[in-house]
UniProtKB/TrEMBL annotation:
UniProt xrefs under InterPro entries: DNA_clamp_sf (IPR046938), DNA_polIII_beta (IPR001001), DNA_polIII_beta_C (IPR022635), DNA_polIII_beta_cen (IPR022637), DNA_polIII_beta_N (IPR022634)
Quaternary structure, from the entry: Forms a ring-shaped head-to-tail homodimer around DNA.
UniProt domain DNA polymerase III beta sliding clamp central: residue ranges: 130-249
Any one Gene Ontology molecular-function term assigned to this protein's record: DNA-directed DNA polymerase activity
Name listed for the protein in its UniProt record: Beta sliding clamp
Location of the protein in the cell: Cytoplasm
């Protein structure tokens, strides 16, 4: 194999594929990226961890077609340090690949192309297209609530399902929860999504997908079955196994009868929470909210550090209430609110609290209170 590629093109593509590769691998070939040079020109780069796979096709001049696998992280580090604007020549023969750019020359070990594993996609009967901006919204508004607890593996991703939503008609819903907070986004159901199975997209796939979306302006083709999902960006294709589990019926924890309504500016509220939480103990991060007519008093009491309090103006006309929340969780939710007003729907100190921009917003959040 012999091919010539621009350093910037190689670096960008390796940046996408090498992040799928785990740093520690018991199977040596999984540390490698597969590079295939096609007879008609162009390079195809591929990496996998057996659950997630990325394939990207880039422009390159090919003198001799062929395929090799080489350490993904090593090749990425080399490409990163090569001079800007340089042409990179890859030449492979007899178990080695030579990389030449300007005066720099590297010889790396390779492993046989035939040993490289490929995820068999099988049939992906459900296909639809989503604008990149919509996919970004879905991910950004929900992923902070994905659980990291391995024992409840079925919460380690974003749950996607279609539903009928009254006057809104057919919709696609995305939800994530860790048992302490819930985030849900609702978007119009795309053509072709009708009848798709309920699926849980794993956390690592979500992270890689979000990185790729930063470089896409148009739409992304989504294909899925009950066990796999594929995102097609044109030049890049991301394929992932889905989490084999049942996501809980999260609709049961979304409160519908919270009759105490607090309206306030999300920015000043978030800054107030952040300030008083400075002295909160790392374990609990608890902040107390005392609600009175048109004001909220935020306070933290820490046995080690002392006390802090701050008053935040708000629109509140219901009966007084004291309730506690994890400051980090509360700030994560407030950070997703783009408007100048956030609605906090409360019931009592022990009931789930509903947070949203208004009743027409795509996203809603549920936060469980803490004892303080």
């Amino acid at each position: 194999m012999k091919a010539t590629i621009e350093r910037a093109v190689l670096l960008r593509s390796l940046g996408h594929v090498q992040s799928v590769v785990e740093r520690r691998n018991t199977i040596p070939i999984l540390s490698n990226v597969l590079i295939e040079a096609a007879a008609g020109g162009g390079l195809r780069l591929m990496a996998t961890d057996l659950d997630l796979q990325i394939v990207e096709t880039v422009d390159a001049a090919v003198d001799q077609p062929g395929a090799i696998t080489v350490s993904a992280h090593t090749l990425f580090d080399i490409a990163r340090k090569l001079p800007e604007g340089s042409q990179v020549v890859l030449t492979a023969a007899e178990g080695k690949v030579q990389i030449v750019a300007g005066r720099a020359r590297f010889n790396l070990q390779t492993l046989p192309r035939d040993d490289f594993p490929v995820i068999a996609e099988g049939e992906l009967p459900h296909r639809f297209s989503l604008p990149a901006t919509t996919l970004k919204t879905i991910i950004d508004r929900t992923r902070f609530a994905i659980s990291t607890e391995e024992t409840r593996y079925y919460l380690n991703g974003i749950f996607l399902h279609v539903a009928e939503d009254g006057s809104a008609g057919p919709v696609l819903k995305a939800a994530a929860t860790d048992g302490h907070r819930l985030a849900r986004v609702t978007v119009p159901q795309p053509d072709g999504a009708s009848g798709m199975p309920d699926v849980i997209v794993p956390r690592k796939c979500v992270a890689e997908l979000r990185k790729l979306l930063d470089e896409v302006d148009g739409s992304v083709e989504v294909s899925l079955s009950a066990t796999k999902i594929r995102f097609d960006f044109g030049a890049a294709i991301l394929t992932s196994k889905l989490i084999d589990g049942t996501f809980p019926d999260y609709s049961r924890v979304i409160p519908t009868a919270n009759d105490k309504l607090l309206k306030l500016d999300p920015r000043s509220f978030m800054q107030g929470v952040d300030r008083v939480a400075t002295i909160a103990s790392d374990k609990t991060r608890a902040v107390k909210m005392a609600l009175d007519r048109d004001k909220v008093t935020l306070s933290v009491t820490s046995p080690e550090n002392g006390t802090a309090s701050e008053e935040v103006p708000g629109d509140y006309a219901a009966q007084g209430l004291e309730i506690g929340f994890n400051a980090r969780y509360l700030m994560d939710i407030l950070g997703q609110i783009e408007g100048d007003l956030v609605e906090v729907h409360l019931a009592d100190a022990g009931a789930p609290t509903l947070i949203r921009e208004n009743d027409e917003s795509q996203a809603l959040y549920v936060l469980m209170p803490m004892r303080v």
